[in-house]
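Batch queue: ligand-bound targets. Current item pairs a single chain with zinc ion. No template structures supplied; prediction is de novo from sequence plus SMILES. Inputs echoed for audit trail.
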Amino acid sequence: MDPAPAPTTPVAPPAHESSAAAVPVVPAAASVGPLCNLCATGLRLSLPAELLTQSSCTHCLGVLPHADSLARALADTVREEVVAYDAPSFAVEIMLPRALAPRHTVYVERTGGYIAFEVRKEFAKSAVPVMEEVLGKTYSAEGPLRLLLAITHAETDAPIAARVAEARRPAKRGRFEGKGCKVDSPAPSEPEPLPFPPSTPTTLPTVGACTVRRDPIRLGGRYLKLERHISQTLWRIKGQRKTELSVAECVSFGLADMTQCDTEIGFIAAGREDADVRMLGTGRPFVLEVRNARKVDGIDPVALAERANTEFAGKVQVSRMCVVNKDEVKQVKDGEELKAKEYTCLVWAPGVDQRKVDEINALPAFQIDQQTPLRVLHRRPNLMRPKTVYWIRMEPLREGGPLYRVALETQAGAYIKEFITGDTGRTRPSLSTLLGTHADILELDVTKVALEWPPARKSQHSSTA
Ligand SMILES: [Zn+2]
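Prediction returned. Tokens below.
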């Protein structure tokens, strides 16, 4: 491809590089396009009166002289949505027409205009008070309400969008290019230099896409799962639910109504148990991430827990529900991998004498090597993981077996079902090999997740179910 033609417009001498602020630059009038007063002043360019304009500014495209009406139009666009939130303040990010950045660059390069002049900042100065007035809320960079607003300018956006699309288009394949035949792709073409002065706009910018979001609110607590056949999160295969209930649905019961949030509520837990495994003892820590809540002033964690506990009595129970912060959420995620867990299980092991049981019960902590279980191999990498069994206690339900209640404590991440059965030799040693018989697991419960969480509050605003 031919190199891009050199710009033909004469380049203005680089003026006032070191003291741009001190003396206004006086470019040859013919070499600049019309500018608004605000841009002429901001760029520190002294212009003849006939080049000053209100609506056809070649630098800001009219954004600054019309800041007030544009801000009002932006605020009007989102007003109805914004007033639905009980947030007292808002943060705002305003996207301006894409052509502004290259136009500023070319003005600085060709006229020595003041580089640090920013249309964005100038626009915000005028726009924020107008938006505060229309929205009836105060501006705060901290949010929690975040407005993402756009001002577009179709006249100048379209050519830029076309250029971007062209640059992204994959190069055409040569005739002989294909499998095993490599052809050097042509170097990406240089963007066409912006003419100077840039084209004079004939239309004014308008309101583009606008979105309103609230920072997430997080609720933490612990859950008990008292019944089997409840998955931790919604479990669907080919559109079919595999369990009637999920823990995530139970513990977030009523929350979407209370907060008028987006319906998808995030769920994080310190580890997980299978659908057929109960979660007993003091429960497992979890976090609910409430996205885009319209109402947070009325969030009552105690009432929420009580509602869930009544609705799902005997199935899923929530305790210590409270509002938590981001750092506290991290403790739950870390806890998943670090904390020890205790379990009890019902094991079928025929032909075991009491002497063997006593031997097992006297074992000190020992290591097991677990190759990824066959049942999860389709979604987890095939790895060997060493895990520690801290202690194990076996007790026959009736003298002589073959049913045993087995309690044990292991390092986080150990697969208990496989430790009992041996998983066709993939877990070594297993309870089966230790007993010298085939042991099968009939029921499993998690009885302790050793993570003290959520942290106690000074004035604990939480349920004590
Ligand atoms: Zn301007």
